[in-house]
Write a structure and sequence with these properties.
It is a single chain. The protein is mostly helical and about 400 residues long. It is built from 17 helices and 2 strands. Strands 1-2 form a two-stranded antiparallel ribbon. The longest helix is centred in the N-terminal third of the chain and has 42 residues. The termini are far apart.
């Protein structure tokens, strides 16, 4: 009887352990967000503190809406399920509408505002193509890698290591790609005016939306909508999952607020190059001799503490926001699976390397180049979409060799 009582106590303790862990994670996440906000407000500026909060909100939304770029493309390639891509087109349309007045005016909150508008050339084509392959091998894009880490996916840590390494490699010979042929930056609103550019943007988004829907109906006979599993009624506000459409609209608002506050759209991967450069400095290597760091703004970012870098601040808070969302959703009631198949680990590392390298060549990732580029009415954003998608066609074929289940 005594042994049975002890066993009952241990069983109850084991059952309560996940609940205690979840409570601790929620508390720590909130403390990190509050503490980070106050720190940035006192050390940098109110803008940096607010961007930190926005990054956390973006991570929270990405996790609760399960808003994946990689998985959305993969589901369409393999199964012709287009809900994720349609949600991306709606997100782009909403962001474009919010970006337009800010870009036309050219200022907000007393400082200049400009979008991501870059030329289309060999570097963008090759970089986006490599990124597309890498995002499937790494099982996540740039934003996906970060919110997966917050959500307790150990594979995301491996992908991030590769991401940083690939970014550093690209910066060592960035000038080689910069000298390759490319067209001049092309802005829809710059060439066709605000109204003409906006209408052209909507037409392109509608074409993609329509094409995806037609191909989906040919396969399934109707549009396929993902069901919301484990719906919690009104508690879904903090437990999730959220409809993709809600995630799309909230991410569009987030990006527009980032543009308004920081003067540029949301970005992710430039921070990875900065982290990598800071790391190699610990071993006596001088990154300022590399082509990528010849730009004065980049050299200044390298000289400053990391908390002065907006992208770094938002990347960190994105992971914390996803961590909070995952804890509220009950993710940490189950143990994190640290043990991964070796092939999956190798695939994640290679995928991260390809994405890190490709993102530097293509002026950004799925957030900076694709989301930010298209919302900025830049032709390079559309070029990134096309060639990254082509890369994903190959990446999806390679995934089984990395022990992934599509």
């Amino acid at each position: 009887m005594e042994m049975t009582a002890q066993q009952d106590v241990r069983a109850k303790q084991a059952a309560n352990a996940p609940k205690h862990l979840t409570a601790w994670i929620i508390a720590v996440s909130i403390l990190i967000l509050i503490g980070g906000t106050l720190f940035l407000y006192s050390r940098v500026s109110w803008q940096q503190a607010l961007l930190y909060v926005l990054g956390a909100f973006g991570g929270f939304v990405l996790y609760q809406a399960h808003f994946g770029f990689t998985s959305a493309w993969r589901k369409f390639i393999l199964y012709r399920q287009g809900e994720g891509i349609r949600a991306q087109m709606i997100m782009m349309a909403a962001a474009s509408a919010l970006f337009l007045p800010l870009l036309v005016k050219g200022s907000a909150l007393g400082h200049p505002v400009s979008g991501y508008v870059f030329g289309v050339g060999v570097s963008v084509i090759v970089g986006a193509f490599l990124f597309g392959i890498g995002m499937q091998l790494g099982d996540g894009c740039a934003s996906g890698t970060l919110y997966h880490i917050g959500g307790g996916d150990a594979n995301g840590i491996v992908t991030l290591i590769g991401f940083i390494a690939g970014s550093v490699i690209a910066t060592t010979h960035f000038d080689v790609w910069a000298k390759m042929p490319q067209w001049e930056p092309f802005s829809f609103i710059g060439e066709f005016g605000p109204l003409g550019g906006f209408l052209l943007q909507l037409v392109l988004l509608a074409v993609v939306y329509y094409a995806v829907t037609v191909m989906e109906k040919r396969r399934h006979g109707q549009r396929v909508a993902a069901s919301l599993e484990n719906h919690h009624g009104w508690k879904a506000i903090y437990k999730g999952p959220w409809p993709l459409l809600v995630g799309a609209l909230l991410l569009a608002v987030t990006n527009a607020l980032v543009l308004m506050i920081s003067g540029k759209p949301w970005g992710i991967t430039s921070a990875f190059a900065l982290w990598g450069a800071k790391f190699v400095q610990l071993f006596g290597i001088d990154p300022t001799a590399w082509a990528y760091w010849q730009d004065e703004a980049k050299r200044q970012a390298l000289a400053n503490p990391l908390y002065y870098d907006t992208t770094t601040v938002m990347d960190i808070s994105l992971m914390v926001g996803a961590l909070l969302a995952a804890a509220l959703a009950g993710r940490y009631t189950k143990p994190v699976q640290w043990k991964r198949p070796t092939r999956m680990t190798i695939g994640a590392l290679i995928g991260g390397l390809m994405m890190g390298y490709g993102a530097r060549l293509a002026f950004g990732c799925n957030i900076g180049a694709y989301f930010g580029g298209i919302a900025s009415f830049s032709a390079h954003g559309w070029a990134w979409f096309v060639f990254a998608f082509l890369g994903s066609l190959i990446g999806v074929k390679l995934r089984p060799y990395c022990a992934y289940k599509n």
